[in-house]
Design brief:
The chain contains 7 helices and 53 strands. It is mainly beta. The protein folds into 5 domains: 111 residues, Immunoglobulin-like, CATH 2.60.40; 107 residues, no CATH class; 116 residues, Immunoglobulins (Immunoglobulin-like, Sandwich); 97 residues, Sandwich (Immunoglobulin-like), CATH 2.60.40.10; 235 residues, Jelly Rolls. Strands 38, 43, 44, 45, 47, 48, 49, 51 and 52 form a 9-stranded antiparallel sheet that branches. The relative contact order is 0.09.
Length: 726
């Protein structure tokens, strides 16, 4: 580390910067060093929009830092990596990085992996870049030019048990990306086509496939061409390493931090007593812009590009900068606002806001505001710490003047007209309430998922609220809620166009019966923008007959917390339920938004109670349990439903392992054209007071007796915005 006069980079700024001296240093604890992390993704295709690609990859990048004792740091996205650097004890380390979207089979989703080993010694400050290379097994298809003109309806299907891709036609030049399930080392392929009016099929296997390799299936004709059809078709497989076509560098944006104070918290003081303030701007690459605006009486300027005269004028007023360079390109600028400048600012009813905007060599931008509340106010309201309780919050204020007799807060639930309540404040660091001290109070919010508004107050013992500061708000810790509860995440599995309610490459929580219905060419559950409560999508569950003539059944549009396991003939096998962390809480209701349009029952099946002509009904239920069905083998799912009439197994709300249940049967159409709010109480069984749920399932179906293939073809249920109410 060194303080540098970098004339080409900062021009005259560096010459003035070194005059400021170093009254504060960002020192490291003994035996520790610091690294600045970035990742480079070697893309196999040319990136069209670099900014979009970088943002997408940065959000998906996971980084683990390990020592000989195991993982010491985990980051689930680049936004979690501290831009000011990661502090580590001296020693040997390995970084592992993953980026992209993992999917068993996709034409779009790609997965990248990389690792880098390094050593940290005491006092080190260095940049570490880990390179991620494609980790998919890839496949593509090409047809001999002469042969392509002889084939029609050509489809090459490539994949494994986890998923397949269909290359359609003889000019499909797409590259397919595969993640391999455990124990699977081969890709299966099937070619179906028509030649001279005759359909044929050829199959084969690509053995011992490897990541970062592309297996190109070349379809060529035999020289003899004595037979028509597959006999004169040969499939040749080329195995090539995938080369990088483009590179996307992922870095953290610059970090802006206060020295000895939180820059997100206003600095409160009276005029003449603000004191010196320093702000650090840290970046993993060279800073190309550090713009300051909002300084009273001073026009906005850029410390990187400012000329010598501007720098000299600023220094005379008490505003200076220093630049520090670290190994491998990391850089830091210290901004200094001397007391000779800040103490001259007069008291004001409005806060002073000094805006700092930093940009680095990778065009990453960060902004921060240094807020100065300079007034005669004895106390100010400050941002409260993030709540760690579901039903209480911590209020926070700051003392601005010495000699206060009483400090506290007024608070109430936000959004109502309740009276303000008073609570005394407690000093955070003990002792009295001197100027600059932070004080807090913990209060009950009265309910879960609540927001409390509050204001710092002070006064005398007889009148503790004679002075009241600004109003701010703080929310309780959010209660546990369901993944994808807003129905915004959907994907196509790539297997026969089956649509499921989960993001591409995401971890499934919901599922539906489309896996069975799509075998007959239909998705009965889909996303919809036609009716929704919030966001852009809802789930549309539409019952429909799937099949041809008498060969088919009614499939009820449905969605479920669970997993579709397999298709048994023309019947489904569904695993109901998922493990869910309730964090010791017990929900009292399920709230959601619905719209239902039933039609008359058009199809019936064995075991049903409805008959043709009866009006169809929708069914929504929620069940909580702290154990699994003892008949469920190998922990495949908490409970398994089988719709095969010869060996049926249906959900039983009265089973011993079910501890709570709630349901709503919609017997009529919902009013109007918009979605309506529905709240389903959850009733706990007698004797379950001490039981905390570990699993839950939620099932919504457009036809109540859909398990028996009974309902009206056309009955439609929209559902959106599920919420567990505690």
């Amino acid at each position: 580390m060194k303080i540098s006069k970098i004339y080409p980079i900062f021009g005259a700024a560096a010459m003035i910067a070194v005059l400021a001296g170093c009254s504060e240093e960002q020192t490291l604890p003994v035996g520790e060093g610091k690294i600045f992390l970035s990742a480079r993704v070697n893309s196999d295709v040319v990136v069209e929009s670099r900014a979009e690609a970088e943002d997408e990859l940065a959000a998906s990048t996971q980084i683990w830092i390990s020592s000989s004792e195991g993982v010491v740091r985990k980051y689930s996205s680049m936004s979690e990596v501290p831009a000011s650097g990661v502090t580590l004890l001296s020693g040997q380390y390995t970084i592992q990085a993953w980026a992209g979207k993992a999917a068993y089979a996709s034409f779009d989703d790609r997965w990248f992996e990389g690792s880098e080993s390094f050593e940290i010694t005491a006092g080190d400050r260095k940049s570490i870049e880990v390179t991620c290379k494609i980790a998919n097994v890839c496949a593509s298809v090409s047809y001999d030019e002469d042969l392509a003109g002889l084939l029609t309806d050509a489809v090459m299907t490539v994949g494994h048990r986890g998923g397949t891709l269909e290359f359609e036609g003889t000019d499909d030049a797409r590259r397919g990306y595969f993640m391999m399930p455990d124990g699977i080392t081969s890709l299966d392929w099937t070619l179906t086509a028509t030649a001279d009016g005759k359909a044929f099929t050829k199959t084969g296997v690509i053995e011992n496939v490897e990541p970062a390799h592309e297996y190109r299936l070349n379809i060529v004709s035999n020289a003899s061409k004595e037979e028509i059809g597959g006999a004169w078709i040969t499939i040749e497989v080329d195995d090539t390493m995938i080369e990088s076509e483009d590179q996307v560098t992922i870095t953290t944006p610059p970090a802006i931090t206060g020295y000895g104070f939180d820059i997100k918290t206003p600095v409160a003081a009276e005029s003449g007593s603000v004191g010196r303030k320093s702000v650090y701007v840290s970046a993993s690459s060279r800073l190309t812009e550090v713009q300051i605006s909002g300084l009273p009486g001073i026009e906005a300027f850029d410390f990187v590009r400012a000329n010598a005269q501007v720098i000299e004028d600023l220094a005379a007023k008490g505003i200076m900068a220093q630049v520090e360079n670290f190994d491998n390109g990391a850089q830091m600028m210290k901004l200094i606002f001397e007391d000779t400048f800040l103490n001259e600012l007069p008291n004001s009813d409005e806060p002073y806001e000094i805006c700092i905007r930093a940009k680095d060599l990778g065009n990453k931008v960060t902004s921060a505001v240094l807020t100065l509340k300079i007034s005669e106010a004895p106390v100010i309201t400050t941002d409260a710490p993030e709540a760690d309780s579901y039903d209480s919050v911590t209020l926070q204020g700051q003392v601005v003047k010495d000699g206060l007799e009483s400090v506290g807060f007024l608070y109430r639930l936000k959004g109502g007209d309740a009276d303000w309540q008073y609570v005394a404040g407690q000093a955070v660091s003990g002792g009295g309430f001197a100027k600059g001290d932070i004080y807090q109070a913990v209060v009950s919010a009265g309910s879960y998922d609540a927001e409390v508004e509050y204001k710092a107050v002070c006064g005398t013992a007889a009148d503790p609220t004679s002075f009241q500061a600004d109003v701010m708000a703080v929310a309780t810790k959010p209660t546990p809620q369901l993944p994808n509860r807003d129905m915004e995440e959907w994907s196509n599995t790539g297997t026969k166009n089956c649509i499921i309610p989960v993001a591409n490459g995401g971890v499934a929580f919901w599922d539906c019966g489309n896996h069975g219905a799509i075998t007959m060419g239909k998705n009965v559950t889909e996303s919809s923008s036609e009716k929704r409560h919030s966001g852009s999508l809802s789930a549309r569950l539409k019952s429909d007959f799937v099949g041809v003539g008498a060969l088919g059944k009614l499939a009820s549009g449905n969605i479920c917390v669970g997993e579709y396991l397999k298709t048994d003939g023309t019947n489904g096998v569904f695993g109901f339920g998922r493990q869910f962390n309730f964090d010791g809480l017990r929900p009292k209701a399920l709230r959601l938004w619905v719209h239902y349009t039933p039609v008359a029952v058009s199809h019936t099946g064995k075991g049903c109670t409805l008959k043709k002509g009866d009006m169809d009904m929708a069914h929504i239920f929620v069940a909580l349990f702290d154990d699994t069905d003892p008949d469920t083998a190998d922990g495949v799912a908490p409970f398994i439903v089988r719709t095969n009439p010869s060996k049926p197994k249906y959900f039983n709300r009265d089973a011993d392992w079910i501890m709570a249940y709630g349901e709503k049967i919609l017997t009529d159409a919902t009013p109007g054209s918009s979605m309506v709010e529905l709240e389903i109480p959850i009733e706990y069984k007698s004797g379950s007071d001490a039981r905390i749920p570990q699993y839950l399932t939620i099932v919504c179906t457009a036809s109540k007796e859909g398990d028996y293939y009974t309902g009206g073809s056309g009955s439609t249920l929209y559902v959106d915005d599920f919420q567990l109410v505690y």
